[in-house]
């Protein structure tokens, strides 16, 4: 699935799923803007990995919860590579709390990064993305379950699924497809942080294969969705979760 000549922005690309997505898009030929918020060293490592196999990438700092920094992210990518064809809204925040323990600050941080960041990155894509582009947003398979302590995080991802659906016909006239990937439990720092081995093991048993997903599982599905073979899919949420329920 060649992406030669394409330019991608991957938010939150310094680690986890975003890192793997950036590397695989580059292996398929895309030039990649590797966005990070604070982990400059890790972003530089991703760029170095891409350059080792002959790919092109640049690390770009931006806190996507701030609209002016989202604008700067697109500006820097356009300055470096001249166009944007693929946007992957991967950057996200998750902390699990019972409703009694959720603070206003925690609530606002979830929505600022997970929803506001995604929405205004899509706005920039409407302005600057090349005809025939692709946008991938990120939700979660937790949205289809009833798990305690996930209320705020799941609410943000439900919002992302709806904005993906509602924006599909706005992007259609520019031949831009927009879809949402909803991973199940993936073995990343974001997911594993603060969870006991017993809890992690219980999540392993909730899917068809008895294991956690790996970043490559998600990146492989995303690579298909940004290819020309998926141009008739838009406004959809694809659950990439190994049969999790």
TrEMBL record:
Coiled coil: none annotated. SMART domains: PKS_KR (SM00822). Residues 6-184 form the Ketoreductase domain. Keywords: Oxidoreductase. One of its GO terms (biological process) is bile acid metabolic process. It comes from the Bacteria. The keyword Ribonucleoprotein does not apply. GO terms for molecular function: oxidoreductase activity, acting on CH-OH group of donors. InterPro entries: KR_dom, NAD(P)-bd_dom_sf, SDR_fam. The keyword Oxidoreductase applies. Pfam families: adh_short_C2 (PF13561). Belongs to the short-chain dehydrogenases/reductases (SDR) family. This is 3-ketoacyl-ACP reductase.
